[in-house]
Hints:
Blueprint: H1 4-25, H2 41-57, H3 63-73, H4 78-89, H5 96-105, H6 116-135, E1 140-146, H7 152-167, E2 171-174, E3 177-180, E4 185-192, H8 195-203, E5 205-207, H9 219-222, E6 227-228, E7 238-240, H10 243-248, E8 249-253, E9 266-271, H11 280-293, E10 294-302, E11 314-319, E12 322-327
Amino acid sequence: MAHPIENTLALLQDAMIAHQQALARGPSTEPSQPVAEPRDLRAQLVLRLLTGVEMRAGIEVSQPAAEKLLRLLAAIDIGELEAWAAKLDTLPASHPEWLSLIESLTVHETYVMRDPSQLAFFAAQLPALIAEAAASKFYLLRFWSVGCATGEEAYSIAALTLDAMVASGNAVVTETGANLVAPWQIEIVGSDISRLALTQAQAGIYDTGPLSSFRDESEPTLRHFPSVPAIGANSVARRSASPDLKATVSFSHFNIIDDPMPAEPFDTVFCRNVLIYFSARARKHAQETLRRAVRPGGYLLLGPTDTLIETEAFEALWAPGAVIYRRRKDDA
């Protein structure tokens, strides 16, 4: 006999497919049939919560999300669950109860120097970005890591940029990494919808090992992440982002579906391995935000399975195993 969760998940299948098809059709002036709700009340409430999450955070209504939510809510009485769903409907996306629910459905898989081919291609653009900033006498480089999770990507960007600044003579090597030569500044913003992940990002301390944050153990990477003293005889070896990395990086809560974008555009925006979890409608909205966040002539880095929607605003630059997008200077 099937497990009750499996029964409820089966009842959700048609409703989830109908919901996705309705989103794919987009807005229409023609009258449409309402999406049929599953007959089971628990299935109805789970679909209601999932669509609420999709509207507020972009996460697609999908079988993995439904199964995860069903398991999380399995022990909650149906009457209590119905009352909670009704309460959530009255709350803004920024409310802690919505954020807690969204947190339970997000994925925080990341590590230092993830997607090395793409990061190497980005690093190859840094000398030109540095030269452009110097020529304009605007000695500031700004980068944004959207969906930074626990912060490894933001610190990876910082390490690559500091290395490029050293190579260009605009920073000097120190025992802890590198110090910028005045008046140069680097500003890297790491943002995520998960406040729990951001807490770890701000600490900047990570485990090491084959499936940890340190799968890249090359010397250029590790020198930016000094070892941290072990806590206890059986503790896992850890490394910390250096003080020089932390001086360039700040972290903030951000919901790309609900929050306004930062006031000033960036030289490069990273949104990698985030949009794969979004619905089609949310991906379109997110990419519109990302386009505006990249200054003309700047770069956008997406995940390897992401398709660029704003094709007229960007030109694709290709390298072996990697693609990045440069916003056209004439794009208004």
